[in-house]
Each structure stands twice: as C-alpha cells, then as structure tokens.
Specification:
This protein is 39% helix and 5% strand. It has one domain (3-66): Orthogonal Bundle (Arc Repressor Mutant, subunit A). It has a two-stranded antiparallel ribbon. The protein is mainly α. The protein has three helices and two strands.
C-alpha cells in the first residue's frame, strides 16, 4: 500500500486540506516546517501523534501532486530593446 494512504482530504477536517489521517496536522505544515529547517526529530517532538511514516507520506504526497500538475505556458512576450 502506498505511503499516501496516511493522508486524507475530508471537507469536515481543515476545510478539506490534505492532513495526516486521524489528525488535524496539515501536509502543508509539515512541508513548511521542513523547509524552514526543522528536522524530523523536531517535528516528532512538537507533534506527539505524528509518526516518521507520516512525514514520509507528506513528502510523497507533495511529490505526487507536483508530478501530476500541468503547466500551461502562455504566449511569449517579445522583449523590446533597451
């Protein structure tokens, strides 16, 4: 079973944002804390219900989401000489 089974989106929990299943801990919070330099140990200490597998699931979920995102390029603007 993929790690992302640990992530749920329920309109009744955090307005449907992706959270760690059974908690109100948003995936976004985990990613933001990691990007700010928090370690896995810091997160596990700050959020006792969080497990190492939850952090890995949040990272996998973010990667999967970006992998399936479509980028639509608009027409290129011509640069004018300066």
């Amino acid at each position: 079973m993929p790690r992302t089974h640990r992530i749920e989106m329920n309109p009744k929990v955090m307005l449907g944002k992706p959270v760690i299943r059974g908690t109100r801990i948003p995936v976004e919070l985990i990613l933001r804390k990691l990007s700010e330099g928090a370690s896995e140990a810091d997160l596990l200490d700050a959020y006792p219900r969080l497990k190492r597998a939850d952090i890995q699931a949040a990272l996998s979920f973010a990667a999967d989401t970006l992998a399936h995102e479509e980028t639509i390029m608009g027409p290129r603007r011509r640069r004018t000489g300066t």
